[in-house]
Amino acid sequence: MGALLKADLTIMANFSTNEFRSGLKVMLDGEPCNILENEFVKPGKGQAFNRVKLRNLNTGRVWERTFKSGESLEGADVMDRTMQYLYSDGEFWHFMEPDTFEQFQADAKAVGDSHLWLKEQDTCEVTLYNGAPLSVTPPNFVELEITETDPGLKGDTAQGGTKPATLSTGAVVKVPLFLSQGEVIRVDTRTGEYQSRASKS
Amino acid sequence: MSTPAPASTRAAPASPDTVSRPARASREALEARAALLRRVRDFFHARGVLEVETPLLCEAGVTDPAIENFLLESGQSLTRPRYLQSSPEYAMKRLLVEGSGPIYQIARSFRDGEAGSRHNPEFSLLEWYRPGFGLRELMAEVAELVQDCLGEQPLEYVSYRELFLRELQLDPLTASPAELEAVARANMDAGSISGDRDLWLDLLMSHLLEPRLRGLCFVYDYPASQAALARIEEVDGLPVARRFELYVDGVELANGYHELGDAVEQRLRFERDNAIRRERGQPERPLDERLLAALEQGLPDCSGVALGFDRLLMLATGIGDIRAVLALDWSRC
Question: Rounded to whole angstroms, how far apart are CA atoms B30 and B131?
Fold first, then answer.
């Protein structure tokens, strides 16, 4: 009963332009958005405006909209949760909240390009919208095995050359020539760039 | 400014979306403020303009619908609420009526609801009045002061009308609100904004035109509907307000008037302001009867200007956020 009531009575607060902060999640034109910047613009003797930069959390698109100061938007039921990536069944990617063991399944739209960096057991940020995964952000750095690349060139550790390497997730990154298939490397998921050989554990 | 994520990045890392940079005045910024205060005082001392100080807490506030006062409501000395002054204008005009001659003031001023990278609810205005000066002479003096503080800069004078015609091929004095709205919407996402012609003019000015103004740019002769406390006169058969704004590299720095001296007209404008306040659901404000009585005695023919001292300091130091030129900004006190 309690839980039911709580779920039924989820009412999002309204936020006025002077409460807009970067990170605040609001509904705009029916879409959940993350506020990136809020600039107060006011001629000394005229109408005050707020020029607001937002990211549409459904599409990832960033744009700018101007409001009259004092207008308000409904808050979006969006929250970022830290979860463990479990596995993919081909259609959905499954995540688990480590404290509650509650599981969530994210579709391809929510996972997007992040699937290239998801390794089982790794910890990710899952953004929930109305309780369902809206997007998935991998850790900034992941360690993945090279499954396919040209044979390593022995001793070529000083030269700057690179070659493509396919990783266990299917991601293709540029790696130094001396690396071989089967080695584990560290990649920056924000840029998709090779960082180093993985530390031996 | 955060860099937009590349299109392929489905979900960007959380940090650039949520980072907020705390800003506060460095030792250098504090020293730059002290130096600028000295420089401004030297400038006016050398010209025989008298420094004055007028009260911050008065029984009348401002009727201007675009400015909200803070009210002080409790205290043994109060017989009625007092308003923290949004500028020292009314008090200084009363001094002018009493024969002060040219005067200036660096006044703490207060405007409710104005906070951002160029606004702090409590700020410093440099305001001065020049009996016998028209708008041209005052603009020239403002330019000298600002160049004295910031160094030589390109200088431009353009009327409000010329600026809109040149940049937007739009006549701000004759275009309909719908025409203004169409140009605004073609250039930005204005969402569900609605309003009268002054709203669209303000939106076009602040979003499209201001950022294009480089160096020192004086924009003068405003639409009569934006006269505030400036005289209205006819130019080319259309009424315009003898008012100017100075922009420096797109930053609004100063606002000046050939001052309205007509007490009857002044009362009408105050009442019109209050009518707009009623219409918009804003609180009405008592008229400053002491100012109106002074105007009846006769304000010397004069021009006056208010210049944002903190913004001048921002420009002098190259600091882009007002919070970093204030000893303690609004959120820290």
Answer: 34
- pLDDT tens digit string along B230-268? 999 999 999 999 999 999 999 999 999 999 999 999 999
Pick the residue from chain B with its C-alpha nearest to A50.
Answer: B116
Q: Cα–Cα distance between A98 and A183 in angstroms, integer? A: 29
Beta bridge partners of A106: A93
Answer yes or no: is pLDDT of B14 > 60: no
DSSP B13-45: -HHHHH--------HHHHHHHHHHHHHHHHHHH
What is the pTM for the complete model shown?
0.82
Confirm if B245 and B255 have CB atoms less than 8 A apart: yes
Amino acid identity, position B200:
W
Chain A residues within 8 A of B111 when measuring between CB atoms: none
Distance of CA A159 to the CA centre of its chain: 34
B63 to B272, B275, B277, B288: CA distances (angstroms): 9, 10, 8, 9
Q: Quick check: ipTM above 0.85?
A: yes
| CA distances for A119 relative to A67, A187, B42, B43, B230, angstroms | 42, 12, 68, 68, 68
Say what the pLDDT of residue A28 is: 95
First to last CA, chain B: 26
Kindly tell me the sign of the dihedral angle through the C-alpha atoms of B324, B326, B327, B330: negative
Mind listing the pLDDT tens digit for each residue in A12-57?
Answer: 799 999 999 998 999 999 999 999 999 999 988 899 999 999 999 9
Cβ atoms of residues A28 and A73 within 8 Å = yes
Confidence of residue B113 (pLDDT cuts 50, 70, 90): very high
| C-alpha separations of A170 from A113, A144, A147, A173 in Å | 11, 10, 9, 10
Pull the structure tokens for residue B226.
């934006």
Q: Residue A157: what pLDDT? A: 59
The amino acid at residue A43 is P
Q: Which of B170, B168, B222, B225 is nearest to B195 (CA)?
A: B225
Q: How confident is the model at residue B37 (pLDDT cuts 50, 70, 90)?
A: very high
* pLDDT > 90 in chain B, percent: 92
d(CA B293, CA B297): 7
Which residues 118-147 of chain B have a CB within 8 Å of chain A? 118-119
Buried-exposed string A37-67: b where 16+ CB fall within 10 A, e elsewhere: bbebbbbbbbbbbbbbbbbebeebebeebbb
Find the chain A residues whose C-beta atoms sit closer than 8 A to any C-beta of B. 18, 21-23, 34, 36-37, 39-49, 51, 55, 60, 62-69, 71, 80, 111-114, 125, 127, 135-137, 140, 190
pLDDT greater than 80 at residue A81: yes
* CA atoms of B127 and B107, how far apart (whole Å): 8
DSSP state of A139: -
H-state helical runs in chain B: 14-18, 27-46, 89-97, 135-150, 160-168, 177-187, 197-204, 263-280, 289-297, 309-317
Counting Cα atoms < 13 Å in the Cβ hemisphere of B226 gives 27
